[in-house]
Design a protein that fits this description.
- The protein is mostly helical and 188 residues long.
- It has seven helices and no strands.
- It has one domain.
- α1 packs antiparallel against α7.
- It comes from Rarobacter incanus.
- This is Aromatic ring-opening dioxygenase LigA.
Length: 188
């Protein structure tokens, strides 16, 4: 194969790859924006306001307070806020209510109680705590899923930028290859 034909073949391959990267980048932008819009609308629909003031200052753990302060008083509508609320507000209250015990531990304690023990004030309190931890874990799971999908959307947008940059580089190299093919001698 002569140099001219080789240049054309490699340049055409590069041009096709550049188009594939452009298409991939466009799809990644669409996916990132779709995820961002869905996460934002679903979180906004919950109408959660991030804690502020005394609600933050009363938290025992300094790292919980530090994680929540940047979002104080804001509407919860983004993945980072969802993670902060789930891990540093809901979990903090769950741990305070249960002395650091998990839902599984509290539920295990409750299920071991006899019917008579469940009817006592202590049994009812343990049942209520079990229900509170269940609801807290459910809300945390929902918020952390929103955080995960929001992060995936952000990664898709970063990948789109990389795909577009790759398309530009391959497009430029293909252009230079076709230009070289025009002036290259048709010898082997």
């Amino acid at each position: 194969m002569d140099r001219k034909s080789l240049d054309k073949l490699i340049s055409a391959t590069g041009a096709v790859l550049a188009l594939v990267l452009l298409l991939g980048g466009a799809l990644l932008v669409w996916a990132g924006q779709f995820v961002d819009a869905q996460v934002g609308s679903q979180l906004s629909a919950q109408d959660i306001t991030m804690p502020q003031g005394e609600a933050i200052s009363k938290l025992a753990n300094e790292s919980d307070r530090a994680a929540l302060e940047p979002y104080a008083g804001q509407k919860l509508d983004g993945p980072q806020q969802a993670k902060a609320f789930a891990d540093h507000y809901i979990l903090a209250h769950m741990n305070a209510a249960s002395d650091g015990r998990t839902y599984e531990e509290v539920s295990g304690e409750y299920t071991k109680l006899s019917a008579e023990e469940k009817a006592t004030d202590e049994g009812k309190a343990l049942g209520d705590l079990r229900q509170t931890l269940f609801m807290g874990n459910t809300l945390r799971g929902t918020l952390l899923t929103a955080y995960a999908f929001g992060t995936i959307g952000q990664i898709a947008l970063i990948a789109a930028g990389v795909a577009f940059a790759g398309a530009v580089v391959l497009g430029a190299l293909s252009f230079l290859g076709f230009r070289h093919a025009r002036v290259a001698a048709p010898t082997a």
